[in-house]
Amino acid sequence: MLFDSKLANKIAVIVSVLFFAILITFLFKSFFIVKNQFISIDGATYVNQVRQDYYTQRLSNFLTKNCLGNELCEVQSMLDFVTRIPYKVNKSVARSPKHVVDQNFGDCDDKSNLLISLLKTKGYEAYFVFVPKHVFVIVKLQEKLANKKALYVNGQAYYKLETTATNSRIGFPLKYKLDEIEAVIDPFKNKKLVVKSLEYK
């Protein structure tokens, strides 16, 4: 009985240690999930839902399968897919890419989260740009587009992608003044870019 009691105590200690280790791991991961989803922009809190998961990777590969590595084809194919999803205001926080596709509607937050997730899985450098009551995506391309203006952030050219305009093209016109741009954000790092210069030309 004494042996059994000692064994039971050891098992109880091991189970307790494992339980607390799992609990601490869960809390640690939860902290970083929250940290990487919430960001403050001019006193307001934005919640992103970007993903680099199997679903998003598979979808981006499917959408670009006929592009043979051509970046304009790839980016436009992903943009076309997102803009065909009907625009509808989501009164809650932004939804994940899979939810936007499954439910077949989204607003600028939802659709921008979907598009930038697709772009990221294909290796494109892209950012969120926040302006009053709107968010859009900018993407860096190797090729300079003729007859298209780019948003130059710290001297680097990025083309605007507008997810809420059906059949919009890469380099959609910027309809905001530069001083209306509230933030340029990398949602995968959940950090604002330090913007030293901003031009649209």
Would you mind describing this structure in some detail?
This protein is an alpha+beta fold. Helix content is 39%, strand content 19%. The chain has helices at 2-35, 54-63, 71-83, 97-103, 108-121; strands at residues 38-41, 44-47, 126-131, 134-139, 151-153, 156-161, 183-186, 191-192, 198-200. The chain has a 7-stranded antiparallel beta sheet. A two-stranded antiparallel sheet has the order 1-2. Helix 3 packs antiparallel against helix 5 and helix 4 (97-103) crosses helix 5.
In short:
The protein has two domains: 1-35; 39-200, C8orf32 fold, CATH 3.10.620. The chain has five helices and nine strands, in the order αββααααβββββββ. It has helices at residues 2-35, 54-63, 71-83, 97-103, 108-121; strands spanning 38-41, 44-47, 126-131, 134-139, 151-153, 156-161, 183-186, 191-192, 198-200.
Decide which structural class fits the backbone. alpha+beta
Find the count of extended strands (DSSP E, 2+ residues): 9
Distance between the termini: 84 Å
CATH fold topology of the largest domain: C8orf32 fold
**Sheet having the most strands:** 7 strands, antiparallel
Silhouette:
elongated
**Given the structure, what is the number of helices?**
5
Residue runs with pLDDT of under 50 for 5 or more positions: 25-38
What Rg is obtained from the alpha carbons, in whole angstroms?
Answer: 22 Å
* Strand line-up in the sheet with most strands: 8-7-3-4-6-5-9
Q: In the CATH hierarchy, what is the class of the largest domain?
A: Alpha Beta
Which whole number gives the mean pLDDT? 86
Q: Please estimate the helix content.
A: 25-40%
- The ordered string of helix (H) and strand (E) elements is HEEHHHHEEEEEEE
Tell me the strand percentage band.
15-25%
From the 3D coordinates, which CATH architecture of the largest domain would you assign? Roll
Number of domains: 2
